Structure formats: structure tokens, C-alpha cells
Amino acid sequence: PIYVPSKSGRDAETQIYPGELFHFDTEVQPILEVLVGKTVEQALVEVMEEDELAAIREQQRRYKEIRAAEKAEEQRLEEQERRRREEAAKRVEELELTNRIRLETEDRVSAAVLTQGYLTDLLPSVLEGLKEAGYFIDDIREDVEENFMSWLMGEVRQEMQRMVDNRDLLSEIVREILETRAEVYRAMATDKPGPGSDEEPTSTPLPGVSSVVLHKDENTEETDETGETKPEEETEVRKSAGKDEPTAES
């Protein structure tokens, strides 16, 4: 069971008779009228505020459109003014540049006239000095002096060396021929028979009466594949010998 605490103290009560407090239908009507009136009034105020806000927004939109048009016109006018100023500044700059170029041209023409008159006598002497100093070098002359002359001197030296070698070779050949002939003549002189011999004396060439004639034909030089010349020698040896006649002994 539910716990019920025990009573303490003494109960009190109040008696209310009918009509002492209030009648609901009678007392609540003014309150309802006030509430409904306030609600309707608030609704009307809100509707009016919405209409006013819509009108304000429309007015702002028209103002923005007008402001944008005015701003665009202002920008167009500013751009036109800026272009006009730039065009004026450009024209002034072109005029100044034209005047500057004209002055520079006049100065250059006057300077060229003065320089031409001054260099008329100075230029030949300067060119002559530079030419003597070696600044003006002929390409053909330089090529001939540096390349062709060196090659030509080398070829001349080689040709002269070949001529000297050929001359030495010819001298050596002639010397060997003379030595060989001398040995032959000495051998023939030693082989000569005595006076008491029964053999018939033969005619032998004597070294004292023999003459050797050497002829060198310079036009008959032949050149081999290596570039050396081979002189041809035409050697003619003429021998003249006397015969010893035998004498009869009594």
C-alpha cells in the first residue's frame, strides 16, 4: 500500500460562496478582445512593414540603376578626358621629339661639314701612317709571304740539295772509274815481257800516253720515281799505244 504519512496539526478550511470569485465568460471577454485586437494590430503592422520594405527595396533598386548609369557615364567621361589628355601629351611629346631630331640633324650636318673640311687634309696622312705602321695588310700579299714563299723556299732548298747530292755522286763515280783505269794500266805495265823473250811483243797501252776523256751530257738526266736524278755518263777512253820494234843483235 501507498505510504501515507500521519497528519500533524489541525486542518483548516475556507468557505467560498457562489459568485464571490469571478464569472469566467464575463471576465474573459475583455481579455480575449484585447488579445485579438493586439494580434490583428500586430499582423497589420507586419503587413505594412513588409509593404514598406518592398517599396524601400524597389526604391533602392531604382537608385542603384540610376547610380550605375551615372557611374558608367562618369567613367565614360573620365576615360574620354584621359584619352584627350594622353593625346594632347602625345602630341606635345611628338612635337618636342621632332624639334629635338631637327636640332640634332642640324648639329650633325654642321658637324659633318666641319669634319669633312677638317679631314680633307688629315685623312691621307693618317691613312699613310696606318699603312706604314702595318695596320692595313693586303690579304694576298700576306698569303704569299707566309704560305707561298715558305713553300717555295723549301722546294728550292730540296732541289739544291738534290743537285749537290747528284754532283757528289757524279764525282764519286768519276773517281772510281779513274782509280779502276789506273789499276788496270799498272797491271798491264807489270805484265810486259822482257827483251830476251822469244814471244813477239804485243802492243800494250802505256799509262803515260793514254788519255781519258770524260764527257757528261747534262741534258740526258733522268728522274726516277723518288725525285732523284740519275745522270748518264758517256765516257770515252781513247788509248794510243806505240809498238816497240825488236832490234837484231849481231
Key phrases:
disordered C terminus, cilium, two-stranded antiparallel sheet, 250 residues, Radial spoke head protein 3 homolog, phosphoprotein, 65% helix, mainly alpha, cytoskeleton, 2 helices, cytoplasm
Task: Give your account of this protein's structure.
The protein has helices at residues 24-133, 139-190, and strands at residues 211-216, 222-223, 229-230, 233-238. By secondary structure, it is mainly α. Among the domains are: 23-103; 137-188. The strands form two sheets. A two-stranded antiparallel ribbon has the order 1-4. Strands 2-3 form a two-stranded antiparallel ribbon. Strand 2 and strand 3 form a beta hairpin. Residues 196-250 have low confidence and may be disordered.
Short description:
The chain has about 250 residues and is mainly alpha-helical. The protein has 2 helices and 4 strands, in the order H-H-E-E-E-E. A hairpin with a 5-residue loop joins strand 2 (about 220-225) and strand 3.
